[in-house]
Amino acid sequence: MMLRNFGPGLLVAAAFVGPGTIVTASRAGAGYGTALLWAVVFSAVATAVLQEMAARIGLVTRKGLSEAIRESFSKPVLRFLSLGLVAVAITLGNAAYETGNLLGASLGLEILSGVSPRFWAVAIAVAAVALLLSGAYRMIQRVLIGLVVLMSFVFLVTAILVEPSLAELGRGLVPSVPDGSVLTIVALIGTTVVPYNLFLHASTVQEKWPADMKTDEALEQSRLDTALAVGLGGLVTVAILVNATAFDDASSLSAIASQLEPVLGDWAGAFFGLGLFAAGLTSSITAPLAAGYAMSGVLGWERDLKSPGFRAVVAFVVLTGLVLALIGGSPTEAIVIAQAANGLLLPLIAIFLIVVVNDRALMGEFRNRPLQNLLGVLVVLVVTGLGLYQLLGVFGAV
Questions:
Q1: 25-67, pLDDT tens digit by residue?
Q2: pTM
Q3: What span, in angstroms and rounded, lies between the C-alpha atoms of 205 and 65?
Q4: What are the sequence ranges of the domains in the chain?
Q5: Coil, helix or strand at residue 17
Q6: Measured CA distances, 288 to 91, 322, 394 (Å)
Q7: Are 31 and 245 in contact, with CB atoms under 8 Å apart?
């Protein structure tokens, strides 16, 4: 079966195509048509570039990204600051992400069943914790791959039924920044180029391609896996944005679902609910999984799903996300703000990644080539520029 050839790349796609992607891409499509399609394409390319680096670090060093950062920053002060920033950013950031993931998955089930999303949020959190604490990595991977395929089918089918204009799609690939769109662009990048995915990828490639395999062969297979999976995730995001170009209102998930009725008729609610549930559940599993790998590396714990420290981090992220989800508030606003904050955090983590992947002592002949560095620096400059512009806007400077 072809799906067996996929590896950690699909975990990355499962992580970034979550409720945040659905909400942010829907708002982009409803508010700006196809004008921000270029931002989705840029985000997918940037994701592939950075994820390839993270996977290469994992396969060459046989360490997680946190461990590699610890070794690469030899001066105690720099090491302490870098790992401290990683710990705070990943653990607290993933807890915030988990809120949106649980809300999205529970709202999808509410659409399907009519049962309160609070009930479903608790049920999904319990299911995610149980699956993660089982320590069965391969079972988790199979569940996530199945959900990614289901989610991709739902959103790609609806995009085809919308019958988008090829001319409009082409114009959307030309970079432009419509008035008031900077926050949406930052959020689109933040929902796709996800910092915690770098830690997840560096660790999980070691499960798929063991140490006794030739490094060149493992890297070749990993690059193909990353390109195909991230490409699929980017295509799904494009499909969501294209769907939303026909919407008048993307202020809430229920509004998004109702506006699919002209395309899908009575099946609109079921289709959207199913896709939203799959997107939320996959991200509800990958966010705490990534936090566990990151914090285990920071604190020097064993990177094992069955270790007490790993399980404690997983439980913290899920339970914090659940508490925040039950408190209430607007799910869509919470999700968009989390994605925008992630876009602001990304440059810092990307800089750490580029430093490590250029470390001759760690990477040897597999360190970055000039073109890879150029692409990586370009990604950092673009997301840093957008982030600074957004911060200046907050303080009224632009």
A1: 888 988 899 999 999 999 999 999 999 999 999 999 999 998 8
A2: 0.86
A3: 12
A4: 2-394
A5: coil
A6: 8, 12, 30
A7: no
Residue at token pair 């909400």: 23
HEC states along 232-257? HHHHHHHHHHHHHCCCCCCCCHHHHH
Contact 19, 167 (CB under 8 A): no
The span from the CA of 101 to the CA of 339, in Å, is 12
Could you report the per-residue pLDDT of 268-306, keeping only the tens digit for each? 677 778 888 888 888 888 889 888 888 888 888 888 788
Q: How confident is the model at residue 1 (pLDDT cuts 50, 70, 90)?
A: very low
CATH class of 2-394: mainly alpha
Place of tokens 């975990």: 11
User: Which amino acid, 339?
Assistant: Q
Burial class (CB in 10 A: 0-12, 13-18, 19+), 224: middle
82 touches 348 (CB < 8 A): no
Take residue 330 and report the two structure tokens written for it: 């607007």
Cα 128 to chain center, whole Å? 17
The rounded Cα 349 to chain-centroid distance in angstroms is 14
